User: Fold this.
Amino acid sequence: MNTEDLMSDIQAIDTRSLVDKVEMNLIDFFIKKELSPGDVIPKEIELAQAMGVSRTVIRESLNRLKTMGLIESIKHKGTLIKSPNLPHILQKSMIPNILDPQSLKNVFELRLVLEVGMADLVVRRVTDKDIEELAWIVRNENSPSPDTLFDVEYEVQFHGKLYEISGNEILKEFQTMLLPVFHYVYSSGLINKPIVKKKYVSHKELVEILRERDPGQFRKGMRQHLANHFNRLF
Assistant:
């Protein structure tokens, strides 16, 4: 039997599982060594020798970690630990036309929960100028009937301002991340389910509630404001 015949029976090694293992080992190594953002990690060749794998496997594993935002390479410094930008990482996968309806519904639910939950931050940090800006945004709003959705432009502007007022940078980034899904859910008809007519709080009414600076009342107002969304989802 010649060499060619012998080689035809040899199966290629699937290195993907090895890359997965190295990736997890690296993360475990970072944790055990209590590495923090800015700390330099060992070089590729050092990691390869320590783990007993090729530099190619190490390089692929490190590239995955870079994509996740856990490490970054800086010229003349090497590869450093980085604090990942969580919303940015999620945003890369937040493609409305690709996400299935259930995932879109889950993301929209997340938006509703965030907006009710951030009431305390908004009330604590809102200024008189912020309140007047909110009032200006909805100055020409025509309150829709209880069984219709709010105008999407008012939703985006008004609630975007609330995220800004919260002063929480990750919340603000989440709002930016959720916008494409928000628009898609509205335009796709995913939440066009008819509901039993029920009184809700309008944007203009929310502004007046916010003037009182009572977190409990504002949280209740937000929940009633979003009631027509919740009723369509549950």
